[in-house]
Amino acid sequence: MTFTAVAPAAGTPRNSAATVLERFSYDDDIVRKFLFATLVWGIVGMLVGLLIALQLANQFFNFNTPWLSFGRLRPLHTNAVIFAFAGNAFFCGAYYSTQRLLKARMFSDALSRVHFWGWQAIIVSAALTLPLGYTQAKEYAELEWPIDIAIAIIWVVFAVNFFGTIIRRRERHIYVAIWFYIASIITVAILHIFNNLSLPVDFLKSYSIYAGVQDAFMQWWYGHNAVAFFLTTPFLGLMYYFMPKAAEGPVFSYKLSILHFWSLVFMYIWAGPHHLHYTALPEWASTVGMLFSVMLWAPSWGGMINGLLTLRGAWHKVSRDPILKFFVVAITAYGMATFEGPMLSIKSVNALAHYTDWIIAHVHTGTLGWNGFMTFGMVYWLLPRLFQTEIYSKRAMELHFWIASVGIVLYVTAIYSAGLTQGLMWRAFDETGRLAYPDFVETVAKLLPMYWMRAVGGSLYLVGMFIFGWNILMTWKRRPAVYDVPVFEAAALSRGYSAPKDVQLPAGVWARFTHAAWHRRWERMPMLFSALTLLAVVVASLFEILPTFLIKSNVPTIASVKPYTPLELAGRDIYIAEGCFNCHSQMIRPFRYETERFGEYSKPGESVYDHPFLWGSRRIGPDLAREGGKYPDLWHVRHFENPRAVTAKSIMPAYAQFLTKRLDFGGIQRRVDAMAMLGVPYGDAINKAEAMARTQAQSIANAVVQQGGPKGLEDKQMIAIVAYMQRLGQDIKVQRTAQAANAPANGAIK
Amino acid sequence: MTKLADIMEHAGLSMYAEVALVLFLAVFIGIVIRTYLPSRRRALDEASRLPLDEAPIVAHRKAEER
Fold it and tell me: What predicted TM-score, i.e. pTM, was given to this entire model?
């Protein structure tokens, strides 16, 4: 190791005599703002979470109010906790740590404020539009197009502010936490833009430009990476800064953290298809997704071990310091969730877990444990520093820690058992080879005790949130009349920096290579270096994704599959607005226990006109892919009016408003036109969508009356949604009967 | 959309996925080697201390408002 002696020259410019010392201070006001936003939205998001948990335990909690029903509030809960709670927590920690790691104030205080207020305005608009039924029907990307544009703009504001700070930094080396932030900022921007590409119909309604299989592929490329780059990498960045701070020692292995970073960046992008095992997605794609998911095991656990071992020599502090307790549980939860994730991506495990509560349990281990506890630990660490006083109550921190931990345990054990129970009941056959639980609702009713236990666990976690909030407020009240702003001093980074000339270059091939002029110059441009590397990652991802997207042979077309009629399309939009896809899948997997229960398995070619796809990810109610023709029209009318009148144990909210609310016939033409523009072959309907819809509505309304139902439904929403229900899965049946009719004529019958 | 799909179909791009995979692997191996170069040890050790290594405070001022 003859050449280590010269290595510091590259990293310590501030010792150089030629450099200028600069004075600066940090903007902690923005950190305080984000801290309060984290608290407020955390409480809101978790309150909504508790409400929807209660709705599953007893449908009474839907209060027979459309805007409070499960289908509309579930996206509000997920959006609020991911983008509002975790998002603001990330911004809070990122604004604090970035300034200090780069020894520079944020690039622009004005941009910081635009970022803060813009982000809060987006959250408020989400909280208003989602309960009102404005949704794109894609998980974690439900917000409609004007809000999507606002998100993109605010994200760019954040990015400009962030990269501007990097350029003006006074520390040559960019610490690994900043890398995680960079990767998150760039990847989230790309994911958000590509998944939300849609064609607006009107101010708050749009159709995804992708359809069926491609929309599903895109959505779960997004959905998986939203978890990766919104809930994982930003919080890993926070971990790599705040954990050493709290433990008062450097991270266990900086080299390991570098590998952790690069392997996550390289692998995460490919793992998305594991959300679509045994669906109509081509098999090779889901196999690639599975392989990369399993490979993610290694870096994730490397990162977990790195985080925990940062406490080496400081373990005795953990029993006394609640902040370290929060961090230890957070990192352990990261380890558990990232162990379970690859396991769930293995096809045979996935077959059991998919569509069940197991996935919900997996997600909550990650969010309640990893994101929640990282946030709590970080905020408690920040409180005395931001408000320049002692934390109000250390005992309340302890209480928060224990009550939230017990809450997590209750929540996840209840929901893991619910997931396993339902998954096993679905696939159970009796000794005669028939489904042991042919009635779907039996597999739901069995879960109710576990749903109550989940609500109790969630309530405990929420109580912890209130203790957290109380402690923050009381600490804030003790703040000084005027905050002290320390002024720091550090050397400016000079552009024309070069290594001191008088240092002797070491001998040896490696040394000559690593000290070559190009290599030194390259090393001095970390900003450019990281930007180019990420560009490479992005371009390569697109190369992998785009061909699979655009090659026709990947989605075999089926001649008998036709576009929805204008009335069915209107019904489908009601289905979307009510969030039915949150509980009902439309994707029958090719297993005997699925086809026995629901009918012929779903084919890729069946959803080619589905903008957006509605395959769903959870079955709280039965799959609807073959619902058409199973029941008479009147059954659906009665069922929507009061599900318990038809299925006694049903937990579905009532949709009696469909009987009275008028269908917007005038708006149907616009919707059909938008679909036609996306390439759906609408033919005649392009000019007379409304007339066609009225004719079909009349004939269904007549049928309902004939079956003994109420009169005058022909202009109500009920007719449209019933028309849509009766269409689902019918195209394939049409083909079958056609084959059956042809078979004897061809003489091909056995 | 259909036209673009036809073009992509005939462009024969499916091989690019494998090429991308090999490139990715090569870059990743490069990063691993670079990280463990003995010559980088000192710089990385210093970098690992960055969160703890705060700039010196040279003065104090009061925030204008609360």
Answer: 0.89
Say if A339 is an interface residue toward chain B (CB within 8 Å).
no
**Residues of A numbered 573-592 whose beta carbons fall under 8 angstroms of chain B's beta carbons: which are they?**
none
The answer to whether A62 and A579 have CB atoms below 8 angstroms apart is no
The DSSP letter of residue A507 is P
- For chain A, report the end-to-end CA distance as a whole number of angstroms: 81
Give dist(CA A105, CA A98) in Å, integer.
9
DSSP A94-151: HHHHHHHHHTS--S-HHHHHHHHHHHHHHHHHHHHHTTTT----STT--S-HHHHHHH
Decide if A721 contacts A640 (C-beta within 8 A): yes
**What DSSP element (H or E) covers A692?**
helix A685-706
- The DSSP 8-state label assigned to residue A277 in this structure reads T
User: A with B: how many residue pairs have Cβ under 8 Å apart?
Assistant: 150
Nearest to A487 among B50, B60, B66 (CB): B60
Compute how many other C-beta atoms are within 10 angstroms of the C-beta atom of residue A97: 24
Query: Per residue in A110-134, pLDDT tens?
Result: 999 999 999 999 999 999 999 999 9
Region for A683 from its dihedrals, namely left if φ exceeds 0, alpha if ψ lies in -120 to 50, beta otherwise: left
- CB A232 within 8 Å of CB A264: yes
* Residue A716 DSSP class: B
Q: Would you give the DSSP letter of residue A369?
A: I
What is residue A642's three-state secondary structure?
A: coil
The token pair at A134 is: 């404005």
Q: Which amino acid, A564?
A: Y
Q: Exposed (0-12), middle (13-18) or buried (19+): which is B56, by Cβ within 10 Å?
A: exposed
pLDDT digits (tens, 9 = 90+) for B8-35: 666 665 666 667 667 777 888 888 898 8
- The partner residue sitting opposite B5, judged by closest CB among A23, A540, A550, is A550
CA gap A3, A496 in Å, rounded: 24
Q: How far is CA B50 from CA A135, A167, A174, A490, B47, in A?
A: 44, 17, 9, 14, 5
CA distance B66 to B54: 25
ipTM: 0.86
Sign for the CA dihedral angle at A170, A173, A176, A179 comes to positive
Q: Which two three-digit tokens encode residue A493?
A: 């980074």
